[in-house]
Amino acid sequence: MDKQDEKKEQQRVTFISDLLNQKISKTKQDVADAEAEAQQVQKNYGINTSVNYLEADDRIETKADLQQQRTLVNKVVEDENIVKRQLRTFKELKHSPYFGRIDIKDEGYPDIDQLYIGTASLLDDTTGEFLIHDWRAPISSIYYNGTLGKVSYDTPNGVQNTDLLKKRQFQIKDGQIINMFDTNETVGDELLQKELNAKSSDQLRNIVATIQREQNDIIRDTKSDLLVVQGVAGSGKTSALLQRIAFLLYHSRDDLNASQIILFSPNLLFSNYIKDVLPSLGERNMRQVTLAEFFSQRFEGIKVQTLFSRFEDHTANTQIHDLKGSKQFINQIDDYLNHLSGDQIVFTDIYFQGNVFFAKEDIQKIYSSLNPNLQLADKLLKTKNTLIKTLKHRIQADIHDDWVLDRMDSLSDEEYHNYLIDKKPSDFENFDAEHDYIAYQIAQEHLRIVYDAIYNNSFWDPFTQYTDFLANVKLPDDIKSLDWNADIAQFKHQFEFHQVRLDDAAPMLYLRDKFTGENKNNNIKYLFIDEVQDYSIAEIMYLKLIFKNAKFNLIGDSEQAIFKDVEAATQLLKKLNDAIPVKHARLIHLNRSYRSTYPITTFASSLLPDGEHIEAFNRDGEKPMMYVEPDENASINRLKQIITDKLKLKDSVAIITKNRQEAELLYRKLRKDFDPLLVSDSARTIDKKVIILPVYLAKGMEFDDIIGWDISAENYPNEHSLGILYTIMTRAMHSLTLISNQTISPLIPEKAIKKHLIEIKKVEK
Fold first, then answer.
1. Which of 125, 534, 615, 630 measures 20 to 30 Å from 5, CA to CA?
2. What's the rounded Cα separation, in Å, for the pair 346 and 368?
3. Using CA atoms, how far apart are residues 681 and 700, in angstroms rounded to an integer?
């Protein structure tokens, strides 16, 4: 690239920087004006809502004024948010306005267009032309997918053919071009190497400048109802997931907003790790929740076991766990519900002030009298309506009781008129009609608790119903009746203490919500699950039941299964397709690993039975190291020495253990020397140089230097631990060190040792 070309590009960057400075200055004033207007409108709203209105003639006018005030408040608050987002976008662009340029010549047009690609679009206010194109714009797909020559892109009028004449990439920082080169690839190796060699961060970085072609396929998919991404460790699948959300919000801006997207995260630490990616692209964050959090919210008052607690529970029966997580188990629930007769349904009494108001026998009679061909949800709804109708008769009968009349006589003028806030004087023929109306409201309030009980289905006991279902389950041959009955007893015992095991959460909620037809969320349009290999099929089927309108996006790596045995990707994907039948399902494989150096990726993939499918990005680094020590004390001393050496290099160090018990042991051994951070499942941030965490809290994370603790035959004896060990190793970006007591785990393959993929130092007593 000649000097004149470089000079022109720098002049353009300087022009863009100056323009952004002007826009930032103006937008700052717009923000100040919007804040002042919002404060004034909210102040006026407070004054207006405090007016004491008692006259009946004022009620209608006051109500209209308040509605108008609320609308105005909402508008000015939204206007304020819009200009604040604009300011944030301009500041992001000022730091690095764009990262790519494409020169294209559209078929049928004589001119060559030079288009610059960045994290957000920027318009020239005088000409209306784009100075920067948003990376999500249809034409920007050429930058990610196209190589020089004939390509095409989508337009509102159909597909447009074009010639891609040039693809240029930039690294720009604060108005200066740091690096610039032309390439025929999606992202030049030089730029990608620089990004990957950077130190790890406590926040996931925005990677739109380095999106690869296969990641771009995930991001821009708009047709799939079920998108399954099987990505090897470090393939950028989590980043692609977040860029996909940003793309969808851009692509469907008129009919999709962030509140219609939900992401299931593996843990709170991961949620915090990714929280800044969407705001950095000018988008609001979607709702994030862990599976246990979500289930606990659905149960209301019941604490659901976390994934990590289940991992630490060594008493769990593997066969029972597998059964409850299977599609067959959910199918048995469907079959059980379809064959329920009225006398098998567990109805309960509704009480009022210590007495039975509706007896369960009467409720059962109402239900049993309905057309048996009706759907379960329809029968329950008709039962509720009958109970509510009976309740209304009781309320009507109470309006002339002495206690109601006494309550009316004690009303203040303000209380009296509050009962009439939604009524006009002309709504009543005479004073007696108004009097009866208020008496009805008082009697209705008195019996509100009964109405709420009916509305919330408190006359049906889903816990006992689920217990009855468990007693009728058809067991496979590998589960003994004695073990199953013990499991039922444990479920009942824990429920008495308002606790539910994770294995039972999805099936019990499925039974409840399938029976009632309620608790569904039709507003969610896209559902994302990260680390889907750690979910059971039963859990996914429940999510599909309640988010029936959502397109499912399931991201994971079957080889990083730490809560169960590693299974072939094809086997996992077949289960998912069977569980969620949709019209447009799509599977995308990401086989190239970028996170770790070439030596680390090569060694880690050697553990897997079919690890040869993993493509290691060619980034140099140190060979993984393993120290084999004679006993625990020697291992601790070795660990201290490694940490000390890493800290001299100003590196951060993560020590990953198999479980919480090991992590707590190391914390006690190291806290005096290094003041490490012991990460728990409630942690949201990592703010120390030395951290200790169990493997299940490292999911989705990456660290500069990883030390894997106690990689011994005793700790990792067989293939049941393969996913755990592989996950530990693939968290490392630049350096991987393993420490073992005496005998090395047989999961470290002999071929890896013979090929010197890992350097082993064995210390004898």
1. 125
2. 12
3. 14
Q: CB–CB of 153/159 below 8 Å?
A: yes
CA of 406: how far to CAs of 400, 403, 413, 439, 443, in Å?
10, 5, 15, 10, 12
**Chain Cα centroid distance, residue 694:** 21
Strand partners, 164: 104, 149
Buried b (16+ CB within 10 A) or exposed e, 35-45: eebbeebeeeb
- Taking the C-alpha atoms of residue 352 and residue 239, their distance in angstroms, rounded to an integer, is 54
d(CA 739, CA 763): 11
Cα–Cα distance, 354 to 339 (Å, whole number) = 35
Please give the structure tokens belonging to residue 74: 């909402």
CA dist 478 and 466 (Å) reads 22
Among 223, 198, 211, 65, CA closest to 135: 211
Best CA proximity match to 232, nearest among 576, 612, 579: 612
3-state secondary structure of 100: strand
Helix (H) or strand (E) holding 693: strand 690-694
* CA 747 to each of CA 399, 608, 651, 726: distance values in angstroms, whole numbers, following the listed order: 77, 9, 29, 10
Helix spans in 649-745 (H): 660-674, 722-729
**Cα–Cα distance for residue pair 604/567, rounded to 1 Å:** 17
| pLDDT tens for each residue of 112-169 | 999 999 999 999 888 889 999 999 999 999 998 878 999 999 888 889 999 999 999 9
CA–CA dist 733, 195 (Å, integer): 12
User: Can you list the alpha helix ranges (DSSP code H) found in 50-134?
Assistant: 59-95
CA distance 762 to 765: 10
Q: Which residue(s) pair with 694 in the sheet?
A: 657
CA distance 678 to 682: 11
> What does each C-alpha distance from 756 to 27, 642, 652, 748, 752 come to in angstroms?
59, 21, 26, 12, 6
CA–chain centroid gap for 123, Å, is 33
User: Which residues, at least 6 apart from 549, have a Cβ–Cβ distance to it below 8 Å?
Assistant: 522, 523, 524, 525
Measure the CA–CA gap between 706 and 656, rounded to whole angstroms: 7
Residues paired with 741 in a beta bridge: 629
> What is the reported pTM?
0.86
DSSP annotation of 285:
P
Q: Chain centroid to CA 332: how far?
A: 29
Q: Write out pLDDT tens, residues 678-692.
A: 998 887 888 889 999
